[in-house]
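Practice problem: predict the structure.
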Amino acid sequence: MGAVGWKHQRILIEARVEAVLAELEAALGHSFERPETLVRALTHRSLANERAASEAAHANGNEEAGATGDNERLEFLGDAVLGLVVAEALFLLHPEWQEGELTRLRAQLVSRQHMAEVAADIELGSHLRLSRGEDKSGLRRKSTVLSNTMEAVLGALFLDGGLEPVKVFVRRWVMGEAAEQLARELRSGAALGNFKSALQEHLQATHAGTPVYRVKNESGPDHHKRFLVEVRLKTEEGPPGRPLARGMGSTKKHAEQDAARRALERLAVADGKESADELDAGTSADSQGEEQAAR
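Answer:
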């Protein structure tokens, strides 16, 4: 392909990029004055290297290759901004907590796992700019790449609009239901950030079986989904048996954690006060109410 043809192809690619940025800006709640900052935040180093090589190959005479760059510097900035915004939010929300409690919750909320979940919630992977080779490799779905890109996007948000758009996004997507759930876990003394692990450990310790999670209902528009998940007890002898509890959340993982939390509460009550029959009856009644709420 000649230099003119290559330039025309690049113009078409850039036009398509700008067309899809509007979708991401809607999820971020911010319209970029400098959209090139957001484009850079979405650019993986594989594409930056590929583009640099391609531009160098097509440069001739006094024409110089255009500037290219990846999102790693923005990732560094976004990581720092994220930590600051989450720390401030927790500090204001929980004046009763000491440094240790604040530190533990902040670590969970800014963790790579949680940021990858946030990225998945806003479908950030579909906007990630990768080289052709890496795009085919499945890198778009890798949690580390998603979390790094999410931090880079937060860095871009900060550069373009200051702290306020970052705070708005963090309150909605990073904090929100996850922060409330983690606070409940902290108060309960369960394994912070993982009621599912705590439930599995409890069932293994009592030789009762293993928990199995199933989505029972899904409702709401794509940008505000609600999931109803049921956790059942599976023994070695057969398929999953009686339900332990049901939980709800804006993602499947949040709903599973909520179901595990409820199951732990019910098992604790059953161990002290109720028979297995009473536990089943209570679970059935609550399940009907939760299923109606999910509709």
